[in-house]
Amino acid sequence: MDSIADRTRRQPAAVTTLKHYARILHRRVRQGEPEAIRAVRRLRELKEVAAAQLSESIQRRHCLTVSALQLGFQSWPHALSVLTGETDDFGTLLYPSTCYGHWNIWSAHYDEASSIRAQHGGYLLAYRRQFLVVDRHYIDSLGLDPDDPDWALIGRDWVKPAEVAARTRLYEKLVQNALVGAALRQSRSA
């Protein structure tokens, strides 16, 4: 039987980062910080709970779910399945609002998107179960370096990467950037 330390070592760094963020959110809710309380109120079961009661009854699972939702996943289990490569539904992490104005080509079918990327260049990403081919400016808006060597290692194909470990490293950078951005937006709205 695996120990918790063994399982933690094997999980992708993006999952560890997300868990760390949830721990911080949990602590902040318990301390009664207004922006943290606002963040967890997006959960239906916590919407009407009084702030004093919320700081006592908040559980880590709530914070894990909120952290996952903030990144465009449907739930904590969905985030785990995406970040470990065990699903074909990528969530919305790769299509944040900061990228809405960028050039991209959408396709409902992977083979078509892959062919377009092969013919015209760019980067093949996923949004839920759809596919999009984007340019380097889009990648930059995601907070990733379009010249990162990991892009070459995955063949600029997020969906079916040539090297899964390289995509895992890109996920870590993407999650880190997205969580820092979410924290900055929360602090500005407070």
Topology diagram in text:
Blueprint: H1 4-10, H2 13-30, H3 34-40, H4 51-57, H5 60-70, H6 76-83, E1 104-107, H7 110-120, E2 123-127, E3 130-134, H8 136-141, H9 149-153, H10 164-189
Antiparallel strand pairs: 1-3, 2-3
Write a structural description.
Helix 2 (13-30) packs across helix 5 (60-70). It contains 10 helices and 3 strands; from the N terminus they run ααααααβαββααα. Strands 1-3-2 form a 3-stranded antiparallel β-sheet. 56% of the residues lie in helices and 7% in strands. The protein is mainly α. It folds into 2 domains: 12-86, no CATH class; 97-164, no CATH class. Residues 3-8 have low confidence and may be disordered. It has helices at 4-10, 13-30, 34-40, 51-57, 60-70, 76-83, 110-120, 136-141, 149-153, 164-189, and strands at residues 104-107, 123-127, 130-134.
Give a brief description.
With 190 residues, the chain is mainly α. The chain has helices spanning 4-10, 13-30, 34-40, 51-57, 60-70, 76-83, 110-120, 136-141, 149-153, 164-189, and strands at residues 104-107, 123-127, 130-134. The protein has 2 domains: 12-86, no CATH class; 97-164, no CATH class.
User: What fraction of the residues are assigned to beta strands by DSSP?
Assistant: 5-15%
Profile the largest sheet. 3 strands, antiparallel
Number of domains: 2
**Average pLDDT across residues?**
90
The gross shape turns out to be elongated
Can you count the helices?
10
Unreliable spans are 3-8
How far the N terminus sits from the C terminus, by CA atoms, comes to 45 Å
- Structural class call reads mainly alpha
The helix-strand sequence is HHHHHHEHEEHHH
Number of strand elements: 3
Major sheet strand order? 1-3-2
